[in-house]
Amino acid sequence: MKKAKVILVGNSHVGKTCLLCQFLDSSFQLEFQTTIAPDKSIKQLNLLNTDITLEIWDTAGQDNYAAANKIYMKKADIALIVYDITDKESFENLQNWYDRVIQINDKNKVIFGVAANKSDLFEKQVVNTEEGKKFSDSIDALFFETSAKDHGSVNKTFTGLAEKFIQQLIEKNKTKEENKENEKLEKNQEEEKNNENIILDQKTHNEKGKNTKIKKKC
Ligand code: GTP
């Protein structure tokens, strides 16, 4: 069973908790209750023929919890950075959230996703999709348009990120196996070469012996 730590980050009110609730139990809450202490949720999935457990941490978007967030953001495998398409400031702060994540994680080891949330409120949209995609590309992230009211879009986001995680694991294992195979091949080739040298040495030795005998006879 594979395991991945997922963190949800982004400004307060962008919909992190709602996305998580929709993913976990297909529910949506309209009342807003800010996250104070990050909380861990577990979801088990089977993707690409692989059993995987997602350990999802919903962090607090309010700045006064930044220090506490740091602890929970460590050792992340997947980071979903969320903004609200009706809130420009939440979009402008994406870089800041990304920087916070890579400050305490190896950026090459984290799979990033950007969620343009509240897509159901398109009539109030102030950040267009292209801007969102552009930012997402700049940090090499997967881009998703989500509505916490729509299970399909939310499910696609979490499973898309988890599948990328699994694919990377498969690639890493493949490379490890290939390296092992190459090492084995090199070792075999070296042994074969050594054996050839021994045979050659013996042949030369025998030839020398013959020559010596002939010389003696003369
Ligand atoms: P913090 O816990 O303070 O970091 O906020 P958060 O990012 O977890 O936001 P939360 O999920 O609590 O949602 C904030 C408000 O936005 C709530 O009133 C939700 O009902 C609303 N909301 C969240 N997602 C959506 C969405 O996709 N569409 C609409 N229309 N409203 C949403």
Question: Would you mind describing this structure in some detail?
Answer:
- The structure is a single chain.
- With 218 residues, the chain is of the alpha/beta class.
- The chain has one domain (2-172): P-loop containing nucleotide triphosphate hydrolases (Rossmann fold, 3-Layer(aba) Sandwich).
- Helices cover 51% and strands 20% of the residues.
- β2 and β3 form a beta hairpin.
- The longest helix is centred in the last third of the chain and has 67 residues, at 151-217.
- The mean pLDDT is 90.
- The structure holds guanosine-5'-triphosphate.
- Guanosine-5'-triphosphate binds at residues 12-18, 29-30, 32, 34-35, 60-62, 117-118, 120-121, 147-149.
- Guanosine-5'-triphosphate is lined by residues 12-18, 29-30, 32, 34-35, 60-62, 117-118, 120-121, 147-149.
SSE layout and pairings?
Elements lengths: L1 E8 L6 H10 L13 E9 L2 E9 L7 H8 L4 E7 L3 H5 L1 H11 L6 E7 L11 H10 L3 E4 L5 H67 L1
The structure holds guanosine-5'-triphosphate.
The site of guanosine-5'-triphosphate has 22 residues, from helix 1.
* CATH topology grouping: Rossmann fold
Task: Give the fraction of residues assigned to helices.
Answer: 40-55%
CATH level 4 superfamily: P-loop containing nucleotide triphosphate hydrolases
Q: List the ligand species.
A: guanosine-5'-triphosphate
Largest sheet: 6 strands, mixed
CATH architecture: 3-Layer(aba) Sandwich
Amino-to-carboxy terminus distance: 80 Å
**How many strands appear in the DSSP assignment?**
6
Mean pLDDT: 90
Strand order of the largest sheet: 2-3-1-4-5-6
**Helix/strand/pairing category:** alpha/beta
